[in-house]
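Sanity check

After download, print the first record. It should look like this:
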Amino acid sequence: MRPAAGRFEKVSFDQFAKGAQKAGWSGDVKAAYDAIVLPKRATAGSAGYDFCMPYDLHIAPGQSVLVATGIRVKMDPAYVFLLFPRSSLGFRYRLQLDNTVGVIDSDYYQADNEGHIFARMTNGSDDKVLDLSAGQAFMQGVFVPFGISEDDEVNTKRTGGIGSTDRKE
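Expected structure tokens:
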């Protein structure tokens, strides 16, 4: 049996509503929030936890969109959670995350935005429209253990949300 690396939760309704607005989605926010499905593995041998769409989304060829998943993850600090598009959508539509691989650090859970996981993705197809329905799996996340260097001396704490650890030089 593998050790548990984390636990998925929904963000608060207010945080999801802010995220949906930030993503430019304007449907029935309460219905979308109530229908959020926590990520699950499809089979006992699956490494990835499938993230399902919280609402319907139409992505034209070449179009980039932001998705407010409504999900956050509390995890063991020895792990990082990596996000990837579902393989089948990558093959059929060249769907890609705009940051290539999403990296969710364990301290993101305490971020100002409640650790709300967003996905900015692009339909890389030249000619196929990608229609994603509420409840359809579109992205997967994998827990990965990681190490630190023996001379690591970082003591700072996260306060902001996405991109908050960008270095300001």
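If your output differs, re-run the checksum step. Summary of this record's structure: Residues 164-169 have pLDDT under 50 and may be disordered.
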